[in-house]
Amino acid sequence: MNVLFLCTGNSCRSLISEAVFNHIAPEGLHAISAGSQPIGKLNEKAVALLASKGISTEAYYSKSWNDLPVTPDVVVTVCASAAGDTCPVYLGPILRTHWGVEDPGHVVGTEEEINTAFEKAYATLRARIEAFLALPLEELKGDRELFKAELDRIGLIGA
């Protein structure tokens, strides 16, 4: 199963989601991330945070949803503007959910306040990804409506 984490800029929240998912997911599950309007570079604080958690970002880069290497089975938007975007037609009637997380990359304040915002975003995304991975995915593949309901429920964790 391929999961796409989508955010407008593809530099911070979607990157964190992709890296965490791939770090903890069992074989057969894979995440990618992309943006509807990628900024072309990864957020340095997000990369540093992931490194501090022992999570590699070596092969990751900010990319457009038009350049996906695979067609995802599930699309998870992690920012409000991406949630309102219409997914590219080639994705078809894809299973989609929204897990909104405040963008720590836009926090203005002290270094401590900024670091706290990044830690909060990481903790929220990780908790949601762990909940996703705990789902009976094989069973849910056969019940699209229930799968969507479970994904939407997960989007409320930490909100």
- When the domains are counted, the total is 1
* Count of DSSP-assigned helices: 6
Largest sheet: 4 strands, parallel
* Strand line-up of the largest beta sheet: 2-1-3-4
Could you walk me through the main structural features you see in this protein, from its secondary elements to its overall organization?
The protein has 159 residues and is of the alpha/beta class. The chain has one domain (2-154): Rossmann fold, CATH 3.40.50. It contains six helices and four strands. The protein has helices at 13-24, 44-52, 80-84, 111-134, 137-140, 144-154; strands at residues 2-7, 30-35, 74-77, 95-98. The protein has a four-stranded parallel β-sheet. Strand 3, helix 3 (80-84) and strand 4 form a beta-alpha-beta unit. Helix 1 crosses helix 4. Residues 1-135 form the Phosphotyrosine protein phosphatase I domain. It comes from Massilia consociata. GO terms for molecular function: arsenate reductase (thioredoxin) activity.
